[in-house]
Every structure is written in structure tokens, then in C-alpha cells.
TrEMBL record:
It is found in: Periplasm. PANTHER family: D,D-DIPEPTIDE-BINDING PERIPLASMIC PROTEIN DDPA-RELATED (PTHR30290:SF38), PERIPLASMIC BINDING COMPONENT OF ABC TRANSPORTER (PTHR30290). The keyword Transferase does not apply. This is Solute-binding protein family 5 domain-containing protein. Residues 19-226 form the Solute-binding protein family domain. Keywords: Signal. Residues 7-22 have a biased composition (Basic and acidic residues). The keyword Ubl conjugation does not apply. InterPro entries: SBP_5, SBP_5_dom. Residues 1-22 are annotated as: Disordered. Pfam families: SBP_bac_5. It comes from Mesorhizobium onobrychidis.
Length: 319
């Protein structure tokens, strides 16, 4: 992202503008023009930033943070609202068995996957309520604990005979691929016959839309309210193949969360939803992607936003 300066705030005016932006949601503009440049290649985008051809590079890979800092860039990060998850097809003959899904949960170390993928920036979060949400507290971290021994015992109880379980993923989105590789290793260690099925993104997305998978490595874009995230994963699989959680009880709780504006009541409903999800295990939430932006030191007043979109009000550029 490249900006053209209009005016450079100085002295008291600059300080007042920053305070209003933080505390009063001021949207004062200090630049005449903001130009968004589409650079599909990550390495080329980083090179453009380091060369001064870009002012802001959103969505910096966590593994590239130290390199960006060494090049004199300012790196800003915050908890995001984009949920990275493992989808489970509960209509699949194997995964329709509750003990199989419970075994999957016990076999998956979400904190290890989060740390490996985000270079320690994010922590595991199995809930549809993000840590960046005002509704979040530690109740939303309760989930079947990582316990490969217990996972193997549950597989025995379920009568699992080593049938292959395929994890669909792609290499267009590196995070999805890396998460699938880590998941495969963990499931294999717990006794699953887990196999990777690497597709092009269009094919994987088509399978998601049609519900044609056993397991998928996936990610949901940011939703500003937990009800919106629950609304994405809940539904009737008979009419909506993208629904991951087909539960009348959960749908009733979700509907109530949409019908009330009282924050305390909504939080209580979200807690009930999460406890029910931990019992049913219709999906494996891994973590929320951190928002990590690399910014030229000439850019002033810029901050990252949990919704993962660049915002440039209250921002200016020094000469």
C-alpha cells in the first residue's frame, strides 16, 4: 500500500488527532491518495517494501518478522478475527462416530500447531469466539486436552480398523498446507491412518462447497461478532453442504444470541454453544491468525486492526 501525503501533522494538532483516533474513532485523513498494489508473489512484495516502493505490507508471514525488522521496518501485530480450523465431515461413515471425532480432538495439539505456524505469535483457540472479542474469557479455551494415549483408547472403543482418513489441503495458502502436514503427523502418532490429499485451491473450495471431504484444512475470514462465526458453521447439512455443525440445540442457542442485545446474556449463550461444541466436536478450531503488518518507518499513526483490513485514517507519512 502506497500513500501520497497531503499534510504532515505537527505539534499539538498531531497529538490531538492521535488521541481522537484511539478514543473517539476519529477518521481524519492526512493523505490525498492511498494506492493499493496487487503483488501476488510474497517475496516480490517484501522486496518492494524494503526498496521503498511500498509503505505498508499487510499480512506479513510471522516467519518473516525478524527479517523485516532487520531491514528497518516497523512490525505491528494484534490478535485477529480470522479463524483457522480443521473441518470434519460428520456425515462421513467414519467421522459420524462421536468417539472418532473425540479421538481426533485428543490427538491434535492445537497450541503446538499455532506456535509452529505463527512463529509463536498466536496461541491455540478452539472456539468460535476469538481472543480479540470483547466476549472472550478462558472458558472458551476449554476443549478435549491433547492426549494421544486417550485418543488411541477411543479409537479402540470406536472399533477403528485403520481405514484411511484423507486430509484435503492446498499449497496456494501455505498456512493450510503446513497445518495439514502437522495434523497428519499428530494423527499418525495417535494411530490414525491419516493421508494428505493435496489439491489445487479451486478443487478444494469446490469440495468445501459441496461437502465432499473427510477432513479439510481450512480458514474463515474475520467476523466482527461471534454470532456471525457460529452462523457460518451451523446449519442443516441436507440443504447446506457448507454447514459443519448440524445440531438443533446449537441452532436454537445461536438464534437466541442473534435475538438479544444484552452483552451478558449473549456471552452466556456463547459459553453454552462452546461447551456443546466441545462435546460434539463437529470441527477442530486451531487458532486465530494474527494480524501482522510491516510498515515503513516513514509512516506515522498506523495501527493494525483485528478485522485484518488496512485502515489509514489518522495516518501520515514523513518526508
Amino acid at each position: 500500500m502506497r500513500s501520497s501525503p497531503r499534510s504532515k501533522p505537527d505539534g499539538p494538532r498531531a497529538r490531538a488527532a492521535i488521541v481522537r483516533d484511539e478514543n473517539e474513532a476519529s477518521r481524519e485523513a492526512y493523505v490525498d491518495e492511498v494506492r493499493f498494489m496487487v503483488i501476488p508473489d510474497t517475496a516480490a512484495a517484501e522486496t518492494a517494501l524494503f526498496a521503498g516502493e511500498l509503505d505498508v505490507l499487510p499480512d506479513l508471514e510471522s516467519s518473516r518478522v525478524e527479517e523485516a525488522k532487520s531491514r528497518g521496518m516497523t512490525v505491528l501485530s494484534t490478535q485477529d478475527l480470522s479463524w483457522t480450523a480443521i473441518l470434519l465431515q460428520t456425515k462421513d461413515p467414519l467421522l459420524s462416530h462421536a468417539k472418532m471425532r473425540e479421538a481426533l480432538a485428543h490427538a491434535t495439539d492445537i497450541n503446538q500447531i499455532a506456535a509452529a505456524r505463527t512463529n509463536g505469535v498466536a496461541t491455540g483457540d478452539p472456539s468460535a469466539v476469538a481472543q480479540a472479542s470483547s466476549f472472550f474469557d478462558d472458558e472458551f479455551l476449554k476443549w478435549p486436552e491433547y492426549d494421544p494415549v486417550k485418543a488411541k483408547a477411543l479409537l479402540d472403543e470406536a472399533g477403528y480398523k485403520g481405514d484411511p482418513i484423507k486430509i484435503q489441503t492446498n499449497t496456494r495458502y501455505q498456512g493450510m498446507y503446513e497445518n495439514a502436514v502437522l495434523l497428519q503427523a499428530m494423527l499418525t502418532a495417535a494411530g490414525f491412518n491419516a493421508q494428505l490429499e493435496v489439491l489445487d485451491w479451486a478443487a478444494q473450495l469446490g469440495n468445501y462447497l459441496a461437502g465432499k471431504f473427510q477432513i479439510q484444512s481450512f480458514g474463515y475470514s474475520a467476523r466482527l461478532d461471534p454470532s456471525l462465526m457460529y452462523g457460518v458453521i451451523l446449519g442443516d447439512k441436507a440443504t447446506d453442504p457448507t454447514a459443519q455443525w448440524d445440531s438443533k440445540e446449537a441452532l436454537d442457542l445461536y438464534t437466541k444470541s442473534m435475538a438479544t442485545t444484552d452483552p451478558a446474556q449473549r456471552k452466556a449463550l456463547f459459553k453454552q454453544l462452546h461447551a456443546l461444541m466441545a462435546k460434539h466436536v463437529p470441527i477442530l478450531g486451531l487458532y486465530y491468525e494474527p494480524s501482522v503488518d510491516a510498515v515503513s518507518p516513514k509512516v506515522k499513526g498506523y495501527s493494525v486492526w483485528p478485522a485484518a483490513n488496512p485502515r489509514v485514517w489518522g495516518v501520515w507519512k514523513s518526508e
